[in-house]
Amino acid sequence: MAAPGAGAPARLVQYVVVRSDLVHSLSWPLGAVITQACHAATAAIHLHYTDPDTQRYLQELDSMHKVVLGAPDEAALSGLSQTLTQAGVLHKLWIEQPENIPTCLALKPYPKDTVHPLLKKFKLFK
């Protein structure tokens, strides 16, 4: 007998990683930080709109799954972006303009098991 869920497509997740120091050290309003995450998530979907995983993610409109993680500072966020780029993981590093400040990044939707190992050192955003 097959295991439950065998043959089912993997659950897609869009990861968003936000600099936690923006709120906790630099005193950005929480709404402004949430806006940055929304910008990054929207941009990642737009940039990879024709990707098959993105299309499947969008077809599951009422059951989209996002995970928002916190990066402690700009260096950690930039380092993660470099790691993702080297691993071939498609994402958008959001840089707030005109200040030119990297604030967050969002991956295109991926099966969780594909990208989770690259993100495991980051904890849920608080």
What does this structure look like?
Keywords: Hydrolase. It catalyses: an N-acyl-L-alpha-aminoacyl-tRNA + H2O = an N-acyl-L-amino acid + a tRNA + H(+). The model has no long low-confidence stretch (mean pLDDT 93). The chain has a single domain, classed as Bit1 (3-Layer(aba) Sandwich). The protein contains five helices and six strands; from the N terminus they run βαααβαβββαβ. It is α+β, with helices and mostly antiparallel strands. It has helices spanning 21-24, 30-47, 52-59, 74-86, 112-119, and strands spanning 12-19, 66-71, 91-96, 101-107, 110-111, 123-124. It is 40% helix and 25% strand. Strands 1, 2, 3, 4, 5 and 6 form a six-stranded mixed sheet that branches.
Number of helices: 5
CATH class category: Alpha Beta
CATH superfamily: Bit1
- According to CATH, what is the topology? Bit1
List the domain count as a whole number: 1
Share of β-strand residues: 15-25%
Assign a percent range to the helix content: 40-55%
**Main sheet specs:** 6 strands, mixed
Radius of gyration: 15 Å
Question: How many β strands by DSSP?
Answer: 6
Order of helices and strands: EHHHEHEEEHE
Overall mean pLDDT? 93
End-to-end Cα distance:
42 Å
Q: Which architecture would the CATH scheme give at its second level?
A: 3-Layer(aba) Sandwich
What class would the helix/strand composition place it in? alpha+beta
Unreliable spans: none
* Shape estimate: globular
